Amino acid sequence: MKVADLLCYTDIQQLTRMAERLECQCNTRSKNELIQTILLQMKRRGIFGTELHELADEELTFLMLLVFDRRDWFSLEELTAKASLAVRHFRSPRPVRNLIAEAVASGWLFRGVDRRTRDLYCIPRDLTEEVMAKLRTFFSRTLQTLPNSPAVWRDEGDCLLSDIRTFLTYVHQQDVSLTAEKVMYKRHLQQILTRLAVQETLPEPGWRFGYGYHFRHYPDRFSLIYDVCLVLGFVREEENCLSITDRGIRVLRQPAALDLHTAYRTWIRLYKYPIPLLPVLTHLIALLCEQWVLLPSLFSVVRPWLNEFYYDSPEQVFEQRIVKMMMHLGLLQMTVSPEGTAIRLSPGGRRLLEKVKSFEGTPIPTPLAAR
């Protein structure tokens, strides 16, 4: 619903708070006059009613958590979780309930309009569109782009899906033995890697840090493939062997049973534990990369929402754990030019993120693998 529609259902107390927030001069006892004045003020100042640089860090983060989540309605518990995440990330002393109350007073959130949505909140559709446009304009000022479109770039498309099926086919046809650590023997891993569309080499011996279940033994992309299959129940780790499940066989017989949307949501669940703001970061990167953007300038924009994680610096989290994995998922295209490495949102990535209705979900606390 749009702001004009929601204002008609809003009680006079919230309308009064909105009028005060927008500095409206009107009779606060008249609901009709309040609505007309608020709409007029929004027309002058924009529905959003403020500039991004005027917001505190936790306010902007909370707002992005709202607009990038495409669900129509939110419960108070869901809003509290989002506000808590924003406050906790910046170690803000602001009370969580205060952040939500101010969002309601500002007209960012509205209460439900009927019995079904009475205890829920929604963000107006036109407000979402305006905030998206302002985010793109505001952050694009500091981005560096390629002057010309490159002749060659890397786009993995849906290769991840075909390689998942290749992996499942191998497990289905072969007796895949596991070590005491539940890791495939190198001869099996090597045979699998040579069959994949995107080639990788075995990790070199020595110390290694990562987020996946067996990151110590598997290369980055295959580690993601393995984790997706394990989390979605396509394979099962037995006492000394790896076996395919009925779900995995169904994926082989019906390829449409698995799509990139499902793989993306699984990746988000896996990586949200070490990177709590990952859903915001993936959508913000997609929003800003309509054209070829140089990685260092993009990192400078998203840096406030990144933290180090144990041995990973913010730069490593950005490049290795986010951008690299988004490319493997087919969300991003990448090129190396004389100006430096640049990325762009792929057509498949645009379609996928438009389908994402919600990026909520309990994060999976994957064990850290260290070699």
Rg from alpha-carbon coordinates: 24 Å
The major pleated sheet works out as: 3 strands, antiparallel
How far from one another are the termini? 52 Å
Helices and strands, in N-to-C order? Answer: HHHHEHHEEHHEHEHEEHHHEHHEEHE
Q: Look at the structure and give the mean pLDDT.
A: 91
Strand content: 5-15%
Class inferred from helices and paired strands: mainly alpha
Task: Based on Cα principal axes, name the global outline.
Answer: elongated
Helix content: 40-55%
Describe the structure in your own words:
With 371 residues, the chain is mostly helical. 49% of the residues lie in helices and 9% in strands. It has a three-stranded antiparallel beta sheet with strand order 1-3-2. It has a three-stranded antiparallel beta sheet with strand order 4-7-6. A three-stranded antiparallel beta sheet has the order 8-10-9. A hairpin with an 8-residue loop joins β2 and β3 (120-122). The model has no long low-confidence stretch (mean pLDDT 91).
